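Lab channel / #folding
Pinned by the channel admin:
"Please post every new chain as: sequence first, then the structure tokens as a reply. Keep commentary short and put observations after the output so the thread stays searchable."

First post following the new format, from NK:
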Amino acid sequence: MKKVHLTREQRYTISAMRKQGCTQKKIAEAIGKDKSVISRELKRNANFKGKYSFEYAQEMASMRKERLKKPRKLHSWLKKEIIGLIKEDWSPEQIEGRLKLENKPSVSHETIYKMIRKDKSDGGTLYKHTRHKLKHRKRPIWKKITIKNRITIDQRPEIVDTKQRFGDWEILVLCTKYAVDTIVGENNKGAIVTMVERKTAFMMMEKLECGKNSKELTKVVNRLLLAYINHVHTITGDNGTEFADHQKIAKSLKTKFFFTHPYSAWEKGLIENTNKLIRQYIPKKSNFNEFNQQKIKEIQYKINNRPRKNLKFKSPKEIFFLNLQNQKVAFRC
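Reply from TO:
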């Protein structure tokens, strides 16, 4: 949605007409804006008593505009106030909310966390005033995505989410989806690529001898899905670098590869749930050297042959091959 910026003259008109008791709709018509713009302006730039005046509104807008210029810098007085609140054991979220409540320049809680982390690295003690002492932050806030030409899940056809049709693994004509993910062993030693067809929950898995290597993964995925090339319309994976060669996969299988948003595991919930089933046989911190390809295939067989409640207690294997048979597609066992 495009941002709407009001001029000084428009704010003056709003203030004057507001004092005359004009409705928001009438004010909007006078300055040529939607009434939602007027409503938002009155809420955003009203003073602490809830009243709207031109001078105060323009001052707040100018301050906000200045604050949003890059690079952002905290005023010394604001930084001092934030540090004082941290020492009172206020959480960054509480500080952010209080600043907004008091109509002061807002600072995001992540910015406050950055301040605390920098203070800690400089030998300061602000982190001791946080409830978790910064122990829970084990990954950088911003994860640099190195995968080129990614297509996000936002562009994936909506029909993929319905799980209604088989033929292109999820839908009749538009799409089908394989969700792709990897399970990694202790200390990132060894990896297993798993693939699940969304409608039938049929799963395929294979050990990656070279770990999360994008070239090896590409070869494995292409080989496993080549027999069903006419029924692979979409593949959805996360942002791991093992999917760096996604374009080669898409080209080989004549399909489209989509990526979920960072840290959004729920966007590929089926594969996440399937990996929990796999963990019954391969617990976390397992030594992957103890699992050869034959053992991996035995686990795949067991999971695909177990009845599922959401499949009316039929197995994924039964539904998968029944759909293939109905589509009159030749396949090899």
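NK: The CA atoms of residues 236 and 322 lie 24 Å apart.
TO: also worth noting, Residues 169-178, 329-333 have pLDDT under 50 and may be disordered.
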